[in-house]
Amino acid sequence: MKQELKAGSAYFGIVFAVGFVLGTIRVLVLVPQFGELTSGLIEMPIILMASWIICSWLIIRFSVPRVWQSRLNMGIAAFVLLMVAELFLSILLFDNSINDHFNHYLKLNGSLGLAGQIAFAAFPIIQIYTSDVKERV
User: Fold this and answer.
1) Contact by Cβ (8 Å): 64, 71
2) Confidence class of residue 133 from pLDDT cuts 50, 70 and 90?
3) Which residues contact 131 (CB under 8 A, 6 or more apart)?
4) Phi and psi for 96 in degrees, rounded to 5?
5) What secondary structure does DSSP assign to 49-97, as a single string?
6) CA angle 39, 75, 136 (to 5 degrees)
């Protein structure tokens, strides 16, 4: 379980850093030109592709077993850390209330973003069935 939590924490940290950079570009460059929804739709496949690659690399790096329980633990750890970090950023950087933050998920942009975050959390499990990479397990 320890390796799975380490892998999940690293997965969150790396993807969060990539997402922070992409989000900054989205807000500063894409949103003024294309609007919030289109900008999010442009960003999503990029962050999901990066997440897939990072997830695969970390599974190998941390030798996360190719069983659904281990991969589920990795995905849940990453997802919980992501949700907590997003909540704190929403409150601290954007001056949103907790209620505002959760109400954002009821809007189309927020729902699409949440769907992407759920996919991010599911990637460790999905890679059990799709990965051709030789894992050190």
Assistant:
1) yes
2) low
3) 56, 59
4) -85, 150
5) HHHHHHHHHHHHHTT--SSHHHHHHHHHHHHHHHHHHHHHHHHHTT---
6) 115
Tens-digit pLDDT profile for residues 67-116: 999 999 999 999 999 999 999 999 998 899 999 999 999 999 999 999 99
By residue count, the chain amounts to 137
pLDDT at residue 137, rounded to an integer:
44
Domain-by-domain residue ranges, the chain?
A: 2-125
Q: Tell me phi and psi for residue 62, to 5 degrees.
A: -100, 5
Q: What b/e readout covers 79-102, taking b as 16+ CB neighbours within 10 angstroms?
A: bebbeeebeeebeeeeebeeeebe
In the chain, the amino acid numbered 111 is: S
